[in-house]
UniProtKB/TrEMBL annotation:
The keyword Iron applies. GO terms for molecular function: heme binding; iron ion binding; monooxygenase activity; oxidoreductase activity, acting on paired donors, with incorporation or reduction of molecular oxygen. PROSITE patterns: CYTOCHROME_P450. This is Cytochrome P450. Transmembrane segments: none annotated. The keyword Ligase does not apply. Signal peptide: none annotated. Belongs to the cytochrome P450 family. Keywords: Heme, Iron, Metal-binding, Monooxygenase, Oxidoreductase. Pfam families: p450. It comes from the Eukaryota.
Length: 61
């Protein structure tokens, strides 16, 4: 757990998470994402997840 837990958690953890989200959005904004397998099947137990790993093709302009 990188930010600790309980009452003594890191005071900057919320700021770090927001900064990481902004970083990802800024770098992915100019990219195109396409599914390689159009008929992805999902397994539903215990949580929904793709059975083939959901491969994608990412092309940045």
């Amino acid at each position: 757990m990188p930010f600790g837990g309980g009452r003594r958690s890191c005071a900057g953890k919320d700021l770090a998470r927001i900064m990481l989200k902004v970083f990802v959005v800024e770098h992915v904004r100019g990219c195109s994402v396409r599914l390689l397998n159009e008929r992805t099947r999902f397994q539903t137990f215990p949580m929904p997840y793709p059975t083939d790993g959901m491969p994608v093709n990412v092309t940045c302009l």
